[in-house]
Amino acid sequence: MSTLLQVKDLKVAYGGIHAVKGINLEVKEGELVALIGANGAGKTTTLKTLMGMVKPAGGEILFEGQSTAKLAAHDYVKQGLVMVPEGRGIFSRLTVEENLLMGAYSRSDKAEILHDMERVYHLFPRLKERYKQLAGTLSGGEQQMVAIGRAMLSRPKLLLLDEPSMGLAPIIVQKIFEIIKMIAAEGVTMLLVEQNAKLALQTADRGYVMESGKVTFSDKAAALLANEKVQQAYLGE
Ligand code: ATP
Q1: CATH value of 31-54+72-235 in 1.10.3720.10, 1.10.10.10, 3.40.50.300, 3.40.50.720
Q2: Helix (H, G, I), strand (E, B) or coil at 14
Q3: The dihedral formed by the CA atoms of 186, 188, 191 and 195, expressed in degrees to the nearest 10
Q4: What distance in Å separates the CA atoms of residue 172 and residue 128, rounded to the nearest whole number?
Q5: Whose Cα sits closest to atom 31 in ligand 1?
Q6: Cα→Cα distances 124→50, 65, 150, Å
Q7: Cα dist. 178→27, 66, 174, 175, 202 in Å?
Q8: Which atom of ligand 1 is nearest to 210's Cα?
Q9: What is the pTM of this model?
Q10: Ligand 1 atom index nearest CA of 42
């Protein structure tokens, strides 16, 4: 497996607050990697920095071996780096279908776009039933489905998911994670930030634990689930 993303000694500061203090992580092609940790550990900041939304104070981000430092905002999606943000960021006055098509705005391959729409509707039959509904009137779980579906329409090489379980009932969270597994099984590489550490590690291949801006553990997901310190601090055991 080749390395898709490599983060070296990444540092991020907001004024005097050092949110990320020199972390290293990597994601290989085909992997599903979880980034877990308590509130304020620096997980969201890490994802935002990977997407160029926050400028690092130090370190390096390599995507497919190339530094992302000079990429313009609109280049990220074209390069295949796509994020599903916390809070989802869907367009509430557009229909489900219009939202999904937004994900394909930089593509011109109409037949392939239609094919990808069908693929999303296959993953989310509920969205197919509701394709004409205004996205703002969907349930929280359905909106999360739209956000993931829209990201799929941009054919990501690396999909960054920020807290997909946020604000959702446990049964819906299960459903979303089943879909994340299906997307992974299709070969989409993902980096998943999650508060629900147990579910994230049960779903992922590997994981990183962040604490106060540093990576404190990194291992295969199964090994992290079995690690007593991780269990005590993050898994409620
Ligand atoms: P959560 O799970 O609560 O979202 P997190 O691990 O994603 O937590 P971050 O949101 O990355 O953590 O926050 C890391 C630290 O950086 C926190 O101390 C936070 O208060 C601070 N921080 C985040 N965004 C900003 C900002 N725009 N300005 C100043 N400080 C910020």
Answers
A1: 3.40.50.300
A2: strand
A3: -30
A4: 17
A5: 14
A6: 28, 34, 12
A7: 21, 32, 6, 5, 11
A8: 6
A9: 0.93
A10: 11
> Ligand 1 centre and the CA of 18: distance in Å?
10
Q: Distance between CA atoms of 71 and 91, rounded to whole angstroms?
A: 25
Pocket of ligand 1 (CB under 6 A): 14, 17, 19, 37, 39-45, 195
Among 14-18, 103-107, 146-150, the minimum mean pLDDT is found in 103-107
Residue to substitute in 11, 14, 83 for testing ligand 1 pocket (most ligand atoms within 8 angstroms of CB) = 14
Gyration radius from the chain CA atoms: 17
Nearest CA to ligand 1 atom 30: 14
Q: How far is the CA of 41 from the centre of ligand 1 (A)?
A: 7
CA 160/CA 93 separation, integer angstroms = 25
Choice from 11, 44, 49, 50 to test ligand 1 binding pocket (greatest atom count within 8 A of CB) = 44
Q: Domain spans of the chain? A: 31-54+72-235
Residues paired with residue 170 on neighbouring β-strands, in sequence order: none
Q: What is the pLDDT of residues 18-56, one digit of tens each?
A: 999 999 999 999 999 999 998 899 999 999 999 999 999
How many angstroms is it from 183 CA to the middle of ligand 1? 28
Q: What are phi and psi of 61, to 5 degrees?
A: -125, 120
Q: If you ran DSSP here, which 8-state letter would residue 137 be given?
A: G
81: which strand partners?
A: 158
